[in-house]
Amino acid sequence: MTALLSRFGTALAGFLVLLFFGAFAENFASPGNLSLILKDTAFLAVLAIGFTLALATAELDLSIADVASLAAVVTGALIQGGTMPALAVLAGLATGLGAGLVNGFAVTVLGVPSLIATLGTAAVARGFGFMITQGVAFVGRWPREFTGLARGSLLGVSNMIWWMAAIGLLAWVLLKRTRTGLHMLATGEADEAARLAGIRTRRMKRLGLALAGLLAGVTAVLLAASLSSAAPNMAGDHFLYAIAAVLLGMTMIEPGRPNIPGTLLAAFMLKALGNGLVLLGAPYYAQDIALGVIITGSVALSSTVMRRAAFTKRLNLRAAA
Amino acid sequence: MLRRDLLGASAAMMAMAAGPAAAQAPFELAVIGFQMSSETHARAANAAAAAARAKGWNVTLLNSEGSLPKHAEQFDALVQRKPGGIVVCMGKPTEADAQFAAAAKAGIPVITIMSGSSPHTLFDVVVNEYQVGAQAALWLLGRMNYRGALLTVRFEGNAATRIRGKVLDVVLSENQAVTVLGRHAMARTASWQEDVRAGMQALLLRNRGRYGGIWASFDGQAYVVDDLLQAQGAKKGEVSIISVDGGKETYRRIADPESTLMATVAIPFEEMGQRATAAMESIAVRKQPAASVTAGPYLLLEAELVDQSNVARYLTP
């Protein structure tokens, strides 16, 4: 029971909050609204999965949101200029991947700590975003081939949800079912030990950061397609939420480790909380307070259970000795 | 104040939770402020919300925190909640077109404030920003007798401030005896005051005694410049400073003999919120046609130039 609570305590707390919303917030549990929450979760989840992959190699990517904004601007500028949607999408993805590769180079070759390197990349990306747009968002009636990436649906399910599911699954398979993924996790858990065991840790870190950049590009393309617009700060507010989703995710499923299912669940919880509070009619400042209290409370519940479990384990070991 | 707000928020949440039990629910108005940390957004949104509460309506006040995706998500959620009407302050109807269209499709009337027109909204409550820009530019050049040099503090990241800057450029192009000695373009950061302080401090020191006027794109920038000039020992009237927005602090400074701020163009943000709520009552509650409020896509309000000649009227509580 304790083991279960330590793995799923945060999720359970989140589930209880969702039950509350289901009971008291009209339309919260309606299929339409749940689908809406899942759709809104997609942007945050894809960005947070990127952060998770970087963190799996013990590197922080603080540039994801600004890189996503820049990639959206690049994509939007090309779409607005009449470029083929496929090329614009590729340019957006390349922007994200390029930023990720630069981060990887700065961290593994130049030896700059990822905290600093990615902050620098974030500032550069923000600057380029404003340089390209001059502060004015690209907006227009963009081609359906492009907007359909986010606004379309397949089998009655929004494409956004499919993208999230596919990327989540691929990332999970990479981390848990491939040798590369296991090497990434080993690098993140014990860099030096992994290196001595023959794992190319620097390559793993470069991969983690490159994937974080690439997924920032994916988020950008989906955001621009969904909103038919691109602004130089459009992904900015996802930054803290993405970090919150990853950290919250680390309190469940595999406590203490960055993990994809935890990140996805946490992203959904965060979005569901925001949606539920709007449906309850809570004023915006009450939403911020409630969000903070619920996040801290959920994590506190999980960590208390984990501490108790560790204490009990120690006692059992002593008794056995 | 904070305690009252928190109590109000708690009461609102409890009332919402008990909502289905209410016999006849009052009209519900949702108010979205695009960025409530911006004073002007908050003034319009709070005024709309206060006017609605005074009518006994239920009010949901939301903050998009300056984020376009969050703006769109809040709209999506509101379409699920189906309030009687939505007032959006400084929103993005063009960028979030699909969400505004969904609200219109769901039959929710939407009135925007200073957001631009949209086929999915009833109308936009607005002042003519081109006129505002012209008022500010002509006042400043008039004070300088249409000659000399000036410094400008710009902000290109916002449509209204950008328009004011462009109008200033047009006015200057027709008055070539006035030159721009220095220009600081404010960065779009959370610490913009520091950015303006650093940029303008350098400009003021470099050009000391060579400029007769300073143009700021909004009042917050003018406060920073005013504080810098006061620290340098400048006296009121030595340099003509004008900006745009209006508000208690601005009027206090215009009246204050120690302050160097001379004038502003007062945009009636509170009146905009109140008029939006009143219009919502006419259209959504009394079921009058939108054309009875305004004929076009805009409900135009007047912005007044406030300087020492008329500031006393604005200082009365």
| Secondary structure: number of strands of chain B | 12
Low-confidence stretches of chain A: none
What is the CATH topology descriptor of the largest domain in chain B? Rossmann fold
Largest β sheet strand count, sense and barrel closure of chain A: 2 strands, antiparallel
- From the N-terminal CA to the C-terminal CA of chain B, the straight-line distance is 19 Å
Using the CA coordinates, give the radius of gyration of chain A.
Answer: 20 Å
Topology order of chain A in helix (H) and strand (E) letters = HHHHHEHEEHHHHEHHH
Number of strands of chain A: 4
Task: Please identify the structural class of chain B as seen in this structure.
Answer: alpha/beta
Fraction of residues in β-strands of chain B? 15-25%
Mean pLDDT of chain A: 89
Average pLDDT figure of chain B: 89
Q: Which CATH top level class of chain A fits?
A: Mainly Alpha
In terms of topology, how is this protein built?
The complex is a heterodimer of chains A (321) and B (317).
Chain A: H1 2-24, H2 31-56, H3 64-80, H4 85-108, H5 114-133, E1 138-139, H6 144-151, E2 153-154, E3 157-158, H7 159-177, H8 179-189, H9 191-196, H10 201-227, E4 229-230, H11 238-249, H12 260-280, H13 284-320
Antiparallel strand pairs in A: 1-4, 2-3
Helix pairs in contact in A: 1-12, 1-13, 2-7, 2-10, 2-11, 2-12, 3-4, 3-5, 3-10, 4-5, 4-10, 6-10, 7-8, 8-10, 11-12, 12-13
Chain B: H1 2-17, E1 28-33, H2 39-54, E2 58-63, H3 68-81, E3 85-89, H4 97-105, E4 110-113, E5 123-127, H5 129-143, E6 148-154, H6 159-173, E7 178-185, H7 192-206, E8 213-216, H8 219-231, E9 240-245, H9 248-255, E10 261-266, H10 269-285, E11 298-301, E12 304-306, H11 311-315
Parallel strand pairs in B: 1-2, 1-3, 3-4, 4-5, 5-11, 6-7, 6-8, 8-9, 9-10
Antiparallel strand pairs in B: 10-12
Helix pairs in contact in B: 2-10, 3-4, 5-6, 7-8
